[in-house]
Amino acid sequence: MRNSIFLILIIVIAGFVLDMIGPWWLPLIACFLVCAWQAGSGWSGFWLGAFGMSLLWVGTALYLDARDVTGLSAKMSSLFTGSIPALGVLPGSLPAYLILFVISFLLGGLSGYAGAMFRKAI
Amino acid sequence: MKLFKFVLPLLLAAALVYVLDRSWGALPPLGKLFSPSHGFFQHIEGPDAGRSGILSLPGLKEEVIVHYDDNGVPHIFAGNDYDLYYAQGYVVAKDRLWQMDFQVLAAAGRLTEVVGNAALELDRYHRRIGMAKTAQEVTDRLERQDSLSFAILQAYADGVNDYIASLRPRDYPLEYKILNYAPEDWSPYRSILMLMNMRHDLSTGTDDYRMSNLIAKLGEAVTDDLFPFYPDRESPIIPVGTAWDFEPLGLPPVPAIKMAVDTAGIPLASLVETPAPRPEIGSNNWAVAGSRSASGLPLLSNDPHLTLSLPSIWYQMQLSAPGVNVYGVALPGTPAIIIGFNKDIAWGVTNVGLDVMDFYRIQFRDAARQEYWYDGQWKPVTARIEVYHQKNGPDIVDTVYYTHHGPVVYEEKDENRYRRDFPVGYAMRWMGNDSEGADLLTFHYLNRGENYDDYRQALTYFTSPAQNFVFASNGDDIAITPNGKFPLKWKGQGRYLLDGALPEHDWQGWIPNAHNPTVRNPARGFVSSANQFPADLSYPYYLDWSFAPSSRAIRINERLDAMHGANIDSLSSLLHDNFNVDARLVLPDLLATLAVDDSIAGMQEYQLLAAWNLVNGPEEVGASIFERWIPELRSGIWWDDMRAEGPVRTPSLDRTFSLLLQEADSPWFDDRGTDGIVETKFDIVRRTFLKSIADLREGFGEYDGGNWHWAKVKNTTIAHLVPNFTMFSRTGIVSGGGGGIVNATSGRHGPSWRMVVALDQDWPEAVGLFPGGQSGNPGSPYYDNMIDKWANGILNPLVFLKDRDSGDTRLRTTMTLQPKTK
Prior knowledge:
Chain A is mostly helical. Chain A has 5 helices and no strands.
């Protein structure tokens, strides 16, 4: 458990650094490499990557949102609730955070899974 | 197998990244957009974000200091003109890059590249009227012949480009990320395209097609009676009785054939009622002489009315360099201050709106469209190929045929054409396609002007869109000049569609610039304009037969006439004046007409209207009823008589009011749609009143007090430039005013900048604001921070610094731009 938290933190920190220097998908490399290095199984790789990546995204988003005075994330939500009415049941910024969470969770998970399987393959 | 287990999830992840990295139809690239370090979260800003620090820029010659005040307004202090315009480009792009870029794409007919097929007809229209072609011709000519204009444009472009070069994709303005494209390099050509947008917005109104359909139906005598060459009620810009201090050229003779005789109107599939809209793109400006002011020196005010949008149309800034220190508003994408003031003078503009767009019927020799008939012989046509790159789809190739008049905008009947008021098979002659002149220099020199002579000299450079330039100086001069390059026309030329084969239908030359109407220090002690007739019929040239309704001008002039000891507050109060001159004129008669019917006189809505104070305040109910009723009444009187096989317009409000007040027994009141019944004025007044009440009830429910408030009914909305981005728009803005009101705030149009300047021997004082904010970023506190003040009639004191070190308590941050040492 402690090891998992440690690995997730590494993903978050490495992902954060990669996020600063490259395109938006670069932190997925961190998910892949950390899991290729330490993940026990495919599914543990998935969870490590998923939690690491979504923690990075949600954390960064919350940090940036803290200084918001214009309601930007809620406005961006409404760009999507118009075409996907089901999202409209969620108030304010939540649709944006939900989309952000799902994307980062899925991508992180897949990358972590691939990393873990890479370890097994070699 | 092991390898497969590894490769499969990897491919899946890569595929998902690929999918989320691009846009699919209207769906933005979700991965890029939602990544907090790359997408929209990057646009959440504090008030001082990016407005401080030291930046090294390759293009600069000397150090430039930019102080930002508490409204996000930059005050630029440069050491030379190149650096000044460079810094202006840099600083404006910092706040408005996407808007500039987007508006250029619109002008150039390239929107379909970034927003998709929905914009194709708009693009085709912009290309086919020649916007991009003319902008290129203007740019090429300036580069060859006008080193000053071109140097200014190039300095500005260098600044914008150095800003663009400093951006990583995650720094691109938010709209780029949603629409998934990247900014293009700036250039002088692009600034000229921005000016083409203004030419387009302010000088492409046309009634020629509608009027030709009308005269074909009604005959000339009736048409001239219903569409007179001068209104019954007018208060022209140049005061009546002003002497003309020039020897006029002879007016060209009116030819025997005044129009394309077979109107060849293309019948429309369905007759939709389209009375010409009440002109709402107009403006007010005025200047009050020292004799009428508290200080003994002039005051000046201006509020240009445009279709309101976000990001805001204007950008406030102070520009200072040796020889110039000016404050005012600039158009993003264009160098210099357009409306503003300096230590000695102030100036402003309203649209003249004279007829500078005419249509000529073209007879091609054959279907190949290589020659057309003109003056007894076949003349060659120039074909121009236009290619549209679609966002999703193959390129579309289109050919535009140019005659000596101009482009044939629409050759074939197409129900989807963007301008249904443009005739098919006609070439367009449009002042907007004139590539002479140097409009930019007018503003460059006004920015540096010190006195009346400088003002007159600056005006000589201006061509289009013609503007009423109002002026005041601390030398106690006031003046106003409807100015631009005016075509010399015979009386009525271009009132109807013209014949492209007849040389006498060509424009007959130009009115000399010195003969443009102007007045300096009139005896009445003020000058003003509100898009009304530039002058009465004593002016020896023909400009147009129709200008904006006179209601705003009448109100402005009667208030200025009564004004003594004027100060900033008195001019500000006039800017926000909500009095309804039309209602004062016509409502008593309409109420008396209705009152003979007890069932109506007993109605609550009738009593509300009768008790109305004639002010279009935000909470007035009478204004809601009146403003709904008048358009209803106008089409109720005229539409049955005007209906024709093609677009037509109804007579002006002024003519309608004259009919109501002076021709109560006129047969025009009869509704031709009813057999065997002859309607009277009472019938139409009653019917349209009940119709507008029914519409209000349907739209807003039974009257219960608050639900019919004028602000609710009017629902002033300021929309983002991309119509779908409603989340970045503001709606339900509570304000008074209306189309024919001095405070010309209607549903989608209104004062796009309000300014009052009090001149002074030492240092001027000024107030102003626009409905939006300095920043184009929806995540910035400066995106729309001025809208509430604007709606409530408040103006901000403007910080106008004497020099870079003079300081002000309202300055917040300083950004230093330094030349990058190589």
